[in-house]
Design goal:
- Two copies of one chain form a homodimer.
- The first copy, chain A, is of the alpha/beta class.
- Chain A has three domains: about 50 residues, SH3 type barrels (Roll); about 210 residues, 3-Layer(aba) Sandwich (Rossmann fold), CATH 3.40.50.1170; about 120 residues, Rossmann fold, CATH 3.40.50.40.
- Chain A has nine helices and 23 strands.
- In chain A, the strands form six sheets. Chain A has an eight-stranded mixed sheet with strand order 9-6-10-12-13-14-17-18, sandwiched between helices.
- The N and C termini of chain A lie far apart (about 60 Å).
- In chain A, about 50% of the residues are buried.
Chain lengths: ~425, ~425
């Protein structure tokens, strides 16, 4: 706490070089003075670098620190809040983070979202994204569907933790068909009360996209580690590719759809536009699906586990163009995979390299695996394949192979070469 | 076959724009005339674009098509050939590829390697890299060790298939300590008889590095999809990141060590230099180690399989900063992981995002997992962690946690930020 100043006061911070004015915020890091500038950016100052602090205006005790002002002239969007870092603040006492639980609390940390839009908030649950699974994706899809059906709402933003955000974006891409509005997932990698949180830019850019004519499920987030602009990436062509960087989400085997600035949008590649579609929802999911990453020397006995446990489908993350071990008595993967398929388990192959497209025809191994019935999923991401397989297998009336190879929500990109 | 010309003849190919001269090679692709230019580059011409073909010189029937000329003035390097695409040629009859089995055959396809060096070839086995496991890594290490101990040999090149090359490079990084010469792994993504194979540049650059003062295990390969220069990447900080591109191998959480051109080398980052070390070999390996990729909703019952099968260690590819599911009765991962560790199984965590560094201290889940005894492997790659754990666990005299967290062969990069 700084002498004579309280959190919420408007203050000036003088450094050797410049003077900054903004709202004084509680900083979870000791030795740091945290300021919310009028442009919405949180900036932290190391105390020893501050030459002077001046009070500009005491906070008005009769009003909340930040206020949600509804403005009839602005468009309304839906905001689905699910937890994660974008809804977390540090708890220095505990040494970790806590969830920010009310819309008002959220607003306190990113009022700039409300500059352009009115926001209808729904909070179906609050959890870390590592704890989310298909039942949560089903809940989210239902909440989003209600918003798609509302005449008032122009577009939908979904915020959650980053760890499984790309799974949720894939799930919404399949569960919700014939979209009539943008469905925009966003996140932050730094909790919102930290200096230079990425939440503010991501949310503002997500709001821009939610008002756009992109009628797809997309992920919007930092394009690089500068706090300048975002990309909007197709929900089936995106993966978390860094544990901590702000630009953790990258388009895979695909270009981004949009470059998104705070005030305007640039189109990078083709997308589905707003039309007169009536959105449909289909959230059924077969939970007995698994991901299995192949590694050198791995015994195929692992497949027995899935058989015994009644699994219906497995995504194998294969090597290179779609290879697994074939030689040696102990490594009789092909025999075992045939046996599994004879017993009705669907086996699909994806690429452990993440980037690129499988091609089972180049090597003998691949051709033998293909002959055994394995479905080669070309350039589809493992995570997307997992979600799609669970969804497809829950429809006994569908031809599994045909559906898995049908480009339903942009999960294949036929155009990438090499 | 072209009229009046035989494979091995020196011919001229006239196109609308230019005339090319070189050795006429059998092309596996129909409609293509394949030429090996004097600069070592294979170039393919579509027949309909050829205006004229002219015989320059018949091949000398008394000599082999290409000849291995030993030149006393050149330095000698060791070449360990293990199979893979770099040793494969297309078999149009079978519709796949066959291995090129003798050094002379190899030489036919990349004589440019022999421009600068004499080559001692060893072929301990020939297989697709998808079939290699720790027993093969042990064999390779022993062959390389012999070459390290030879006074004649300046440096060692190892060629193998790309699919598990980064596992082999990790294994050699741990199995061979106190190197006295460079150990350079290289590869090709296109079989060597195809127009624009990447083998030639990779081998020439690998030869340059094998003569350099880099006393580490490195992977040398195309820096981008142009056929211009290569990077040399530390063997513990490299991963195959594309199914088919020539620049499939990328440095992860690290810079490359060298930029390698055909004729010279540029230093990018620090490395261990040639000294007076006496190389040591230690190839022991505990085969009961596994990689387990966590996915949303995954049941912890999978751990029972590893317990029953007598596994000694598991690398869990975790979400984000090192997270797995913690909530729900069905998802009692923490309890199960504690139980596994109580029974003596070592559990390590790596990052599913591939890029970035784990940090278990940010979230409650991570702190609980850390407390349960899990070893968080910071910025170490999953594949490297797997190899290292197998190696460390085979030494009962070592403290496993200490050894796993010791930076033995550059597998940790303490310097990366974010």
């Amino acid at each position: 706490m700084v002498e004579n100043c309280e959190y919420g006061d408007r203050i000036e911070v003088h450094t050797m070089k410049e003077i900054y004015e903004g709202i004084y915020l509680p900083s979870p890091e000791t030795g740091i003075i945290l300021l919310k500038l009028d442009n919405g950016y949180n900036i932290g100052f190391i105390k020893k670098n501050i030459s002077k602090l001046e009070l500009v205006k005491k906070k008005d005790e009769s009003k909340p620190l930040f206020e949600v002002v509804r403005d009839g002239g602005k468009p309304t969007i839906g905001l689905v809040v699910l937890g994660g870092t974008i809804s977390s603040r540090l708890n220095p006492g505990k040494g970790g983070v806590d969830f920010v639980e009310t819309p008002e609390d959220l607003f306190q940390f990113y009022p700039e979202l409300f500059n352009k839009v009115n926001v209808k908030v729904e909070v179906p649950f609050m959890k870390g994204s590592e704890d989310m699974d298909y039942k949560d994706w089903q809940k989210v899809a239902k909440v989003v569907k209600k918003m798609l059906d509302s005449n008032e709402i122009r577009g939908v933003i979904v915020t959650q933790g980053t760890d499984t955000l790309h799974y949720t974006s894939a799930a919404l891409s399949f569960f919700l068909q014939d979209l009539n509005k943008p469905v925009v997932l966003t996140y932050s990698q730094r909790s919102i009360d930290r200096a230079s949180s990425d939440a503010s830019l991501n949310l503002e850019c997500a709001a821009n996209v939610s008002l756009s004519d992109v009628c797809e499920v997309v992920v919007v987030g930092h394009a690089n580690s500068d706090d300048e602009f975002c990309y909007a990436i197709r929900g089936t062509k995106v993966r978390k590719m860094h544990a901590s960087r702000r630009d953790a989400f990258k388009p895979i085997n695909s270009e981004s759809i949009l470059k998104v600035n705070k005030d305007y949008i640039e189109i990078i590649s083709e997308y589905k536009k707003r039309g007169k579609e009536k959105p449909k929802i289909d959230t059924s999911f077969e939970e007995k699906v698994a991901i299995l990453k192949f590694y050198p020397g791995q015994s195929p006995d692992i497949l027995d586990y899935y058989l015994e446990k009644g699994y219906k489908g497995i995504i194998i993350e294969t090597l290179g163009l779609g290879q697994i071990a074939t030689s040696g008595a102990r490594l009789s993967w092909i025999r075992k995979l045939k046996e599994m398929q004879d017993k009705g388990i669907v086996i699909c192959a994806t690429a452990q390299t993440i980037y690129g497209r499988l091609n089972p025809l180049v090597y003998v191994t691949g051709r033998e695996l293909l002959k055994s019935g394995i479905i080669y999923l070309e350039d589809m991401l493992t995570e997307v394949a997992f979600v799609k397989l669970g969804w497809v297998l829950s429809h006994p009336e569908w031809n599994v192979k045909e559906k898995m190879l049908e480009n339903i929500s942009g999960e294949f990109n036929k155009r990438i070469v090499e």
